[in-house]
Write a structure and sequence with these properties.
Elements: H1 7-12, H2 24-27, H3 29-49, H4 92-95, H5 98-106, H6 143-150, E1 193-194, H7 197-201, H8 222-228, H9 242-245, H10 268-272, H11 295-307, H12 317-320, H13 336-358, E2 369-370, E3 384-385, H14 410-413, H15 424-427, E4 431-432, H16 444-447, E5 455-457, E6 460-462, H17 498-502
Antiparallel strand pairs: 1-4, 2-3, 5-6
Amino acid sequence: MPPPETGRQRAARIPLDYYKHTTPLDRGRGWRALALAALLTLGAAATGWFAGSQGQGYYSRGPVAAVHATWEDNCTACHTPFTPITGEAWPGRFIGDVHELNQKCETCHAGTVHHVNQNQELACASCHHDHRGRDASLVRVADADCLRCHREIAKFTKDGEHLPANVTGFLADQHPPFQMGARAPDPTYRGKITFSHQLHLSPGIAIKDGKNPTKVSDIADPAERERYRGAGPDDDRVQLDCASCHQLDRDGRKPARSAGANLLPVSYADHCKTCHPLGFDDSQPHLNVPHRMQPPELHLFLSGLYLNRLPAAAPDATERQPPPRIRPDHPRADDADALARRVQVLERVKRAESALYYGGKGCGLCHQYLQDVPGDDPLAAPRSVLPSPVEGVWLTRAKFNHVAHRAVNCKECHARAYPDAANVSRLKDEIVTASGPGGKLSGLRLCQECHAPATVRDGQPHGGARYDCVECHRYHNGDHALGGLGAKERGARQPGGIAEFLSGGRPGGAKSP
């Protein structure tokens, strides 16, 4: 029996340059790993394929939002095979078409562009991210999706002359000041409305030492008297509050626009006429002229009224059924008596116009005039009465829900409508404006008292309310984001039947391949 091999002998059998040479086992190692990876991939694909619905649910990134749950297992309802959903990843630049991707969404949603000057079309899925669970919101867009354009807005717009300010957030110095009722210069010019909030919020609508207060019994119309009556008798003074004129769109007399988020525009017919009738003749106090008549139209109305000797009528009868407008120079007025009558009519018309325009109770109480009167007569009718600047919706580029803020006193945000006694004389001829020194809406800083990160300042709570972009702004149709919904259109491009709807918009309800 040979002696056992020593360690030295075993080591001598191993070449010292073994690491410089490969063996068949080494050369096949990479191929074996590649074959194993391919086998696992094919096995996973086969498992998903035979799991049902051709593997669509198996490969999903996660549950879709509740509004899309109907198409949970029908990926092609929203996706184009082998095409990135956003079109922004590098493969999408070569094999994706943003317009084609958006058509998938527009099968059900006819959204509009964000701004007429935007210089590129974004895929819907660039901002609306699905597969984040049933309770995820598709319209609660992250700030990053908004700020990627708005932090450098000039790069994403066609016109560099009229650009909004860059925005980086809603905290201090990140957001531009509010703009209320912003619009292009109006060639017809809009006048200002002379109005004092302090006067109208005082008991009896009387400032100077409370003299000559308006009582409930002073209101002639029984229906209006009931509207302004408080809990006391008719001898009580009329006491207005914010809601007397600023009514939510769900509470106003007009058809509701929504569920109460916005305020209806203040109008003469609904909020002013009760205390400020447009009377013009003390001998016939029941007669009032219609509102919104311009001087030439009003002149014809008054001429026809006096020429036809309109008898006594019920209050506001002239608003419901104006008399025929017959000019004083009508052919039937060609004899001496008719001529005298024409002169008398013209004199009465002039007195009525003077009372309406300059009497302190008619048009001039609130409106401004565009004065272009020939001659030296200071009481001649103006060329036109300037329209008021009252907007249907003041915030045209944002949304504000008054109902959501119902627990906050109106005075907190509209402090300038509640001046102290020291400002009474200044506010007697107060001018209501949309924004600026005379505005009634407090600025950005006040909103940030609540809409900011939750902190404690001087022992008092501060912030805590949401302050992301979509809290106040909508993307779609951003140029016309009036009250209610942000987009002009909501319907599908071509509404179909139930089978077509459930199959993801395919004609005839065809199933996915």
